[in-house]
Amino acid sequence: MRKQCRRCGADSGFGPGKRAAEQAGTRIRRSLYRLAPLLAASLVFQRVHADNFSRVYYDAGRDQLVVTMAYRGTNPNHEFALKWGKCRDAQPGSPSEVVAEVLDDQWQDQAKRDFAKTTHFDLTGMPCRPAQVTLRTAPRFHYTLLIPG
């Protein structure tokens, strides 16, 4: 005579009983229903256009910020600009802090192919020096570096 496990419905170690198989199927379906929105969101976010910093450095000889942007789009003709925030005084003896948002003139371009573009930003109009500059771009990419006085 075979015995059936009360907890899982297994039939004497010879595999799950009918009830256990039904419960397992229900658990899998419920898990898939819970994961479906996450999967859909991840597919959407992969298609969303997002600029990122590939390389950033300060060129002291030219007083420029050199930024290589990696982005997705339909063409390589994107132009980037900086939108400076307000300078914040840091603790005494520390440089000021300022945030510059990197703006893409084709931010709504469909993300079809990968591109990279190096842009030289003139810093003569930078609002404060010396400063710790944080570059930001959507959605959550940032890069921080020190610009001397």
Describe this structure in words.
The chain is an alpha+beta fold. The protein has 2 domains: 47 residues; 96 residues, no CATH class. Helix content is 20%, strand content 38%. The chain contains 1 helix and 7 strands, in the order αβββββββ. It has a 4-stranded mixed β-sheet with strand order 3-4-6-7, with no helix packed on it. A hairpin with a 4-residue loop joins strand 1 and strand 2. About 7% of the residues have low confidence.
Q: Which terms summarize this structure?
A:
1 helix, alpha+beta, single chain, 149 residues, 4-stranded mixed beta sheet, 3-stranded antiparallel beta sheet
Q: What order do the helices and strands follow?
A: HEEEEEEE
Taken together, the total number of domains comes to: 2
Query: What is the alpha-carbon Rg in Å?
Result: 27 Å
Give the rounded overall mean pLDDT: 77
Class from secondary-structure proportions: alpha+beta
Major sheet summary line: 4 strands, mixed
The number of helical elements comes to 1
Ranges where pLDDT stays below 50 over 5 or more residues in a row are 39-49
Q: What share of residues is helical? A: 10-25%
Secondary structure tally: strands? 7
- The coarse overall form would be elongated
Strand arrangement in the largest pleated sheet: 3-4-6-7
Binned strand content:
35-45%
What's the end-to-end separation, in Å?
A: 88 Å
